Amino acid sequence: MAFEILLRVARSIHVPGLGLLVLPAQPSAVLRQLPLHSALEVFIGEDAPAVTQVPLSATVEEVQFAHEQTEQAPVVGLLLESSTAAALMPGTALWW
Hints:
- The chain is mainly beta.
- It contains 1 helix and 6 strands; from the N terminus they run E-E-H-E-E-E-E.
- A hairpin with a 3-residue loop joins strand 1 and strand 2 (about 20-25).
- About 15% of the residues are buried.
């Protein structure tokens, strides 16, 4: 199975009761094409995932911050559905 980098992290925000919201460093054309709330399996790491690595469940989400102008398009990112996922450092790769 060939994996590809889905995005590199710009910022991650822990959302209590929901998981870890991951915002991309650059807009992801792949995420923009997927319907909101689409379920994905992703892997975290700098190298392509190993066969034995367990994927994390994620959903595609849109985010718009209150301080941003309403003319700006919302950011499309991922909500990792894991209460154990720690904050991700900027530049971290998410694969799918």
